Amino acid sequence: MDAERDLEAGLGGDGFAADCRARVAFEVVANRWDSVVVFVLGEGGPMRPRSLLDRIGGIGPKVLNDALRRLEFNGLVERRAYAEAPPRVDYALTEAGTALLDPIRAMGAWAARYADDVLSAQDRYTTMRAAAGVPPGSGVPGV
What per-residue confidence (pLDDT) applies to 68? Predict the structure, then answer.
């Protein structure tokens, strides 16, 4: 019981109730690209947007810009503009952003271990629903 109280105290609310502070953390990394940008900045240090695009791959400039704005809004990255011609901007992790690297690495380790299981479950579920005549994506969150 003490461990449960300690966990709840660390989360800042009752389990994962509406006032739970852990929800802030999940919302911060809920976007599919935000944790990728944090990870790349953590591994490579401050970068210009073009370098981030090249390192990440598969992300467009607008999507990257949106991710950087969200991360800046949430205090995970800082935008540094330099008074140069032509203008130069780079992005770096803040202390809070750097502190997210260990949880992001832990999620990566989880994915390395369980991604095939998750994908197999999704395939089984889709096949089962198709066999039952249910249209793809109906009633499935995120699909």
Answer: 97
Helix, strand, coil tally for the chain in percent (to 5) = 60, 10, 30
Instruction: Please enumerate in sequence order all residues whose Cβ is within 8 A of that of 74, keeping only pairs 6 or more positions apart, or say none.
Output: 28, 96
Q: Which of 19-28, 97-106, 116-125 has the lowest mean pLDDT?
A: 19-28
How many angstroms separate the CA atoms of 143 and 62, rounded?
23
**Length of the chain in residues, anyone?**
143
- Tell me if residue 99 falls in helix, strand or coil: helix
Query: For 63-103, what is each residue's pLDDT tens digit?
Result: 999 999 999 999 999 999 999 888 899 999 999 999 999 99
Reduce the DSSP state of residue 22 to 3 states and report it. helix
Q: How far apart are CA 124 and CA 130, in angstroms?
A: 10
Q: State the Cα–Cα distance between residues 67 and 64, nearest whole angstrom.
A: 5
How far apart (Å, rounded) are the C-alpha atoms in residues 128 and 117? Answer: 16
